[in-house]
Each structure stands twice: as C-alpha cells, then as structure tokens.
Amino acid sequence: MSHSPFASNGNPPSNKQVSSNEPTIRNQVRRRGRALDPNMNFRKLKRVMASRQYFQKYRLKQLEYDLQLEKDVQALQAEVAITSPRIKYVDNQNFLLRIQNGSMNESLSVFSSDLIFKEAQYEELKKERDMLKRFYEMNQPQVLDFLKIKPFENY
Q1: For the whole prediction, is pTM greater than 0.85?
Q2: Region Disordered: which residues (predicted)?
C-alpha cells in the first residue's frame, strides 16, 4: 500500500493538528443527529452541514412564527371575550331604540293627522270669519241708519 499525498477523502492532508475538543465540522456532525460518513468529501460535508443549519434555522423560525400565531390567537380570543358582551349590550340597546322609534313614529303619525285636521278646521274658521267680516261691513251702514232712526235708549 503506497502512501499518496491525499487522504482517502480526496483532500490534501493537513499539517494542522485538531484536538477533539475544538468544534470542527466533523465533530459537530458526530454530536448532532445522524452521523455522517467520515470519508465523505469535504465540500459535500460542508454542503450537508450548511443544509442542516439552514433547516434548523427554518424550524426555529417556524416555531417562533407558530408561537406568535398562538399569542395572536389568544389575544384575539381575549378581545372576543371582552367584545362579545359589548356587542350583545349594543344589540339590546338597538332593539330597544327600534321599539322606541316605532312608538315615536306612531305618535308622529297621530300628531300629523291631528295637525292636518286642525289646519283644515282653522281654514274653515278663517273662511267663516272672513264671510262674517264681509257681512258686517256690508250691513254696518244699515245698522247705523237703523240706530239713527230709533235711538238706542228706546229699546
């Protein structure tokens, strides 16, 4: 077996010694999830790790989003719990006001018809007054002549 200048994974050998306590991509792979093939190409290993990190961030964002949605749901439920009785109260007030409005419309109708009747009666009385006034103006000279002929004292 001959020693080649490249390690079995196709990468040139590194002169740098890595202690087992330093976090390296290979050490991280062993600590989390499924173990990767130690003989895997370095670029592929890096790509797999980046993919895992991306999906881990994605899952965290999804979790945060879900938690925020749950908070929003709880806030909306609290708002509904507060608003629902208010809506019932306002609906009840609206119902009572509609009844009162109907009653007032009936009263207005009665007063309106009464006003029409009284206006007609007023016009009739006005016509009668004008007629009596004309009659008085026409007959006043005759009454004065009558009173001149016979003094008032004789009656």
Answers
A1: no
A2: 1-32
Q: Are 131 and 123 in contact, with CB atoms under 8 Å apart?
A: no
Query: Which positions ≥6 away from 42 have C-beta within 8 Å?
Result: 9, 10, 11
53: tokens are: 């990190």
Is residue 36 within 8 A of residue 29, CB to CB? The reply is: yes
Single-letter amino acid, residue 71: K
> Rounded to whole angstroms, how far apart are CA atoms 31 and 34?
9
Rounded to whole angstroms, the Cα distance separating 6 from 12 reads 4
Instruction: Kindly report, residue by residue over 89-145, the tens digit of the pLDDT.
Output: 999 999 999 999 999 999 999 999 999 999 999 999 999 999 999 998 888 877 777
Q: 36 burial class (0-12, 13-18, 19+ CB within 10 angstroms)?
A: middle
CB contact burial 83-107 (16+ within 10 A = b; e otherwise): eeeeeeeeeeeeeeeeeeeeeeeee
Give 38-96 pLDDT, tens digit per residue: 777 888 888 888 999 999 999 999 999 999 999 999 999 999 999 999 999 999 999 99
CA distance 22 to 86: 63
